[in-house]
Design a protein that fits this description.
single chain; about 260 residues; alpha+beta; Structural Genomics Hypothetical 15.5 Kd Protein In mrcA-pckA Intergenic Region, Chain A; Pseudouridine synthase; four-stranded antiparallel beta sheet; 7 helices; 17 strands; disordered N terminus; disordered C terminus
């Protein structure tokens, strides 16, 4: 029986900190019985002690300190935001980066735009927590004309996956195009919101994540985040919640709930 001490670490955190994958992906590996500690299979939620040998598929995790990598990628439609090697359209194959990296969050296969990739597991959960109100901005085109009522309903929230979406910034920018800023990460949220109101999304492009803009990154290309961008990103997530529980919707400061389309004079 393996004795525990006071210097324990969550196994998923340890795997993530090594740069192998995100905590979420580490949990999946544990559930799939692909992770061992000192030669023994472990259960989800397991902890480990300093000096334990952690292996994935029989290969030891390398714990050498790696320089953090932060990449901003303009994902094309058709590329999936997964590290699953069985998916030949996955984002890792597409980029072909020489070191192990993984995406922060997801962007639908049929959507394009900005997504981060990194080898810094600690930052992933902080960016993804919806309760932390980290902004993501999108430009969306739908299949028919929108009006002030559509903008009002989208901004005030609609039922999605059994809950009301949070109030958010929405602005009309064309007959069938609008801009929306979300602080939630519900599955296919914008598409589901539009479907509830009787619209179908034609194009969906993410143009900003927190302090980083998509601007000047060609489709299918990537760039490193600048040091000022990294510093600001870390500053913004410094006080992020580490729990997996999404906070109850709260009134957000400076949220523009409804911006009607400007009428031509």
């Amino acid at each position: 029986m393996r004795l525990m001490n006071n210097d324990q670490t969550s196994l998923n955190k340890y795997i993530s900190a090594s740069g192998f994958c995100s905590r979420r992906e580490a949990d999946k590996l544990i559930e799939q019985a692909r992770v061992t500690v000192n030669g023994e299979l472990v259960l989800p939620g397991a902890k480990m002690n300093t000096g334990d040998v952690v292996e994935i598929d029989g290969e030891p995790i390398k714990t050498s300190k790696k320089r953090p990598i932060y990449i901003a990628f303009n994902k094309p439609v058709g590329v999936t935001s997964t590290t699953d090697v069985k998916d030949k359209s996955n984002i890792i194959y597409f980029i072909g980066y020489p070191k192990r990296i993984f995406p922060i969050g997801r962007l639908d296969k049929d959507s394009d735009g900005l997504i981060f990739l990194t080898n810094d597991g600690d930052i992933v959960n902080k960016v993804l927590r919806a309760s932390n109100n980290h902004e993501k901005e999108y430009i969306v085109t739908v299949d028919k004309a929108i009006d002030d009522n559509f903008i009002r309903q989208m901004s005030n929230g609609v039922p999605v996956l059994g809950k009301q979406t949070k109030k958010c910034f929405v602005r009309q920018e064309g007959g069938r195009r609008f801009r929306i800023i979300l602080t939630q990460g519900l599955n296919r949220q914008i598409r589901r919101m539009c479907e509830f109101l009787g619209y179908k999304v034609v194009t969906l492009t993410r143009v900003r994540i927190m302090n980083v803009q998509l601007a000047n990154i060609p489709l299918g290309k990537w760039r490193y985040l600048t040091q000022p961008e990294v510093d600001k990103l870390n500053e913004m997530v410094a006080d992020s919640s580490k729990t997996g529980v999404e906070a109850e919707p709260q009134e957000q400061k400076k949220v523009i709930q409804y911006i009607p389309k400007r009428k031509k004079k």
